[in-house]
Structure formats: structure tokens, C-alpha cells
Design goal:
The structure is a homodimer of 209-residue chains. By secondary structure, chain A is an alpha/beta fold. Helix content of chain A is 42%, strand content 20%. In chain A, the strands form two sheets. Chain A has a five-stranded parallel beta sheet with strand order 2-7-1-8-9, with helices on both faces. Chain A has a four-stranded mixed beta sheet with strand order 4-3-6-5.
Chain lengths: 209, 209
């Protein structure tokens, strides 16, 4: 859906949402449907789990390595979760963008803020909302035995994440997965056609006139 | 392709191109394919032609009326062509936008500049390029008896219009009409999902959490 004779810079597509909004399914479906976008591979200090592949699931780093990279400013965003470090190495992303390939980020509002500070022009951010209060509650009640307190706690966490929608470029309501996927695909395809990303237009126009 | 439960402000979609790039066909096809966008109806002082309908083809105004409106700042853009005045009355456009309907403008770079000055946030501009020099020349040679000078004159005019591509938000190359139409539809649908146009999100989120 880009202009095939014009070279372009890739873009960074961020999908954020509260849990229960269907983001994981939408990310997977988008990656399956479009060969020019791939999921950003994070670096982490947590132990590799059975079946995981270095460089595919994560870049597994020792804590000293991670902190050395951090000191050298090699991360676009990073976070500490349960004592493990996670981060997005910038050189992996900029290599993809320079080659005209798009990179998908499935991150929360805090990660999005960090990316925005460093890569404003390359970033396209979409916030996904659930269709209704009742549907959100239903999706957060994952097991029959979940107590009201547990579900209320998840709702409060979802409400906190949702409060960050004004920081995003686009908002998509996931009432129907097929429609929400089509919406995200339309945004991705449109952003590929943005004049500012099509680095080869001058050259193309030079041959035209 | 917008979020059906969230009210939104309409947008102004501008298509510009040199003649020979297929803009007229693309505009017609877009209007046929999407019920929520309609062509902007201009005002003019030229005489009504047989078959034309006031308020549909044009708003036909007397020169005194047009100039009175002009004095009152009632036009978003205006131009004089062969002694006749043409212009886009702002109230007609703002009524549509306020009702959540989109308006299509088939105008040149000068009209686009004028709209941009007054309606920056509502404007989405697309520049359509022909696929190649040879194809552009072929399309501009409309009749077999067109002299080389006539075609060269048209090419020079096209080159002048094309030089304004850097002033547009998006650039679409019309190699194939179906693909170019899909590109324009993707841009329109994506721009409808822009957070800033979805005026009802706050209210929607209020019911959600």
C-alpha cells in the first residue's frame, strides 16, 4: 500500500490499551496480514525460558551488559519489572526504519512517552479502547472464581491506563476484531503514504518532469 | 470506518494534481464509494449552463453578491478565472464539519494554500502524481492533432503544479486507479480515526470506566 517506485523510511507503530481491549489478538493479526511490519524485539535480563530463541523472542543480556548499554544511551525506552530489566535497543529499530521496514510496539503509555521523546517523527501511536464498561469487566473476569475485589482491582488498573488516551495520535474502539484490524491497517497504510516518510519523492519527481 | 459510538468532527479532504494524473476519476470514484463525504459546492459569478442546478453544481451569485460576501470574509478561498469569480463559502463547509460529515475539494495548490491558512486543523491534503514522464505526456496529448508545442506547454504547466508536492500531507502515485483509490480511502479512514477529530471520546471514556 505504499508507492512502490518511491523509497521511504519505515515507521514505528505503537499499539497501547488496557488489558481486556484485545490488543494481543490485533497485534498478532496485523503481523500475519502485513509482511512489511515486524514486532520490535526487546532486550531483557530475565532468564531464557524453554522454547525461547535469542534474537527472536528477546535479546537476552546479562545485567552488566544491559547496564553498560543503558549507560551508553543505547535504549529507546526501558523499564524494570520484578527486578528484571527490559528495553528497546535503538540500533535494531533504526536499522529497520532506514531499510524502509516498519516496526510494531506493543507497549504501555510509559514506554510510548519514552519513544515519543526520542523518535517523535517516526512514531505513529494508536490507543485501543474496549467497546463498553460491561464488556471490559467481562473480559477482565478471566476465571469464574475471580473475586469481586480482584476484578475491581483489574478495572482500576484498566481505568488508569485508559486515562492516557489523550497522548495518542489515533483512537480505535475494538467492538469487532475484523473492523478494528481494518482500522489499524488503514492507519498503517495511510501513514506509509505521508509525504514526510517518502524519502524518494524528490528523485521520482525529477524523472517525471 | 470511524468509531460508530463516538461523535466526531468532519474533515476537509483536498486532492490536487497536475492535469493528466487522473484526479477527476479518483474524485468521482471516491464520492461513489463513500456516503459520508461530498464534494464542496463552490459559489460562482459565471452564468448558469443548461442542466446545471443552483446549490448542487454551484451557488450562482451576482457579482455584487459575491463581492459583498468577499468583503464580509465569507470565503475560505477564492479566485478569478476569465473575469468570473469562484469561491468556497465558509458557512457551507463548517456546517458539514460540525455535523460530522467530510467535504472533498478538487482544487489546485493556490486554493489549498488559502484553505490551509484558515482551516489548518481540519485539512487533509493529498497530492496525486502520474506514474511516469511518458505516461503523463501520453495523457496530455489528448488529440492526435495536438502539436508538439501544445503538448510541451501542457507539460510545463503540469511541471509547475507538480513542483508544489512538498506542501501536501500525503503523496499518492496513480499507477493503477484501483490501488490509488484504495490509498485515498485508507488516508480518509485513518484521518477519521485521529484522536483530535473524535470529539466524543471523553464522553465515551466517561461511560467506560
Amino acid at each position: 500500500m505504499s508507492n512502490e517506485n518511491i523509497s521511504r523510511r519505515g515507521l514505528m507503530l505503537v499499539l497501547s490499551s488496557p488489558s481486556g481491549a484485545g490488543k494481543t489478538t490485533l497485534s498478532r493479526r496485523l503481523l500475519e496480514s502485513d509482511r512489511n511490519i515486524s514486532l520490535s524485539v526487546s532486550a531483557t535480563t530475565r532468564a531464557m525460558r524453554p522454547g525461547e530463541v535469542h534474537g527472536k523472542d528477546y535479546h537476552f543480556l546479562k545485567m552488566e551488559e544491559f547496564e553498560a548499554w543503558l549507560g551508553e544511551g543505547k535504549f529507546l525506552e526501558h523499564a524494570m519489572v520484578f527486578g528484571n530489566r527490559y528495553g528497546t535497543p535503538s540500533h535494531l529499530v533504526t536499522d529497520e526504519l532506514g531499510a524502509g521496514r516498519d516496526v510494531l510496539f506493543d507497549i504501555d503509555w510509559q514506554g510510548t512517552q519514552q519513544l515519543k521523546e526520542k523518535m517523535r517523527d517516526d512514531l505513529v501511536s494508536i490507543f485501543i479502547l474496549p467497546p463498553s464498561h460491561d464488556e471490559l469487566e467481562r473480559r477482565l473476569k478471566t476465571r469464574a472464581q475471580d473475586s469481586d475485589e480482584i476484578v475491581a482491582g483489574r478495572m482500576a488498573k484498566a481505568a488508569d491506563e485508559i486515562s492516557h488516551w489523550p497522548e495518542y495520535d489515533y483512537v480505535v474502539v475494538n467492538t469487532d476484531v475484523e473492523k478494528a484490524l481494518a482500522d489499524i491497517q488503514a492507519i498503517l497504510n495511510a501513514e506509509r503514504l505521508r509525504r514526510s516518510r517518502q524519502t524518494g519523492i524528490s528523485e521520482f519527481v525529477g524523472r517525471l518532469i
